[in-house]
Write a structure and sequence with these properties.
Helices cover 73% and strands 1% of the residues. It is globular and about 60 Å long. It has 384 residues and is mainly alpha-helical. The protein has 14 helices and two strands, in the order H-H-H-H-H-E-H-H-H-E-H-H-H-H-H-H.
Length: 384
Amino acid sequence: MSTATETHHRTGGDRASARAFGPTVRRLRRWWPAAALLVLALAPFSALPLPGLLDGPLGSPGSLQLLATCLLFGALATGYDLLLGRTGLLSFGHALYFAAGSYATNTFLLEAGLPFAVSALLGVGFGIVLALVLGSVSLRVTGIGFSMVTLAFAQAGSILVARDPGGLTGGEEDRAAPAELLPSGLVGIGNTANLYWLALAYLVLTLAVVHRAVNSPTGRVWEGIKENERRVEVLGLRPYGFKLTAFVLAGALAALGGLVHLLLTGGSTPQTTTSDFTLSLLVMVVLGGSGTRWGPMAGGILYTWADHRLGDLAGSGAVAGLPAVLRVPLSQPLFLLGVLFVAVVHLLPGGLARLPSRLRTARRTPAATGTAESSNSRKENGHP
């Protein structure tokens, strides 16, 4: 049997195997989110050690706190992508609505003395109203003008928090919420698992809302606005209303995230009001893959994990023992994050979400090359 014939039979066998396993692969792709959710939900019951990834076992309080923070920011990046990746709106003020949900809830608790449930509803409601009011003004302009207006509003909010008017914000210091004012099941190290499940529920809710919104008729108009806003106007639709809907929905999800952050950290922090916070969200979205279903979530989780873990690496003894030319840059967590970001953007255009398709393409390329070589060899040997 000739080499060409062997190659032909081998290629045919590969194709038959691919056809046989095709339905199984499709089922796995369909059900993997449910399997991943189940694994995440059971994480607090696990004592699995993950050296290098986490400081302690998977179900330890410290590990669960870090994982909850990662899930929170994965959800927040997913909500922010409603503006950037779905509607084409580059907002530099998204942190304002996240901080509004946290600070408003904290203020209603401490100053008005309202129960937590009422304070939470009013705090998230305040964030939604703020997004509606500021969004209706910001969207009067487009392009870079819109970005600059949202940045101006965010800077004003950050300055307001720093000035501490009436002692309501705590200024440059964190403003803690007394434990007795928070739900007892969400306070203390012993309840870290409950906080983790709360962050997981927020992530699931955000993913569901964004998926439903993107696949609705309004979501298709958002896609049209991102591609060509003028064409949407020619079709007789008013882009302003659709953009405002996306802006308010993203702001509502951010305000809800601020509430979850308040419970995770036990207070409100002024760092969440800065434009740097929004820039971090932008990096998360680009890192994961803007405009994709799972990319912003993956980018948010990876960025948050790296932000925490690279800080530990920068201060480790291994780095301290390096020569100065290596020790100085590697001791800066932001430098390490920057290198990671540049590497992903350079090696994976389109973000982490494009990695599976690139791997599938890489697997198909050798097979296609082998088939072409087999065909050429058969022709050279006089076979049809």
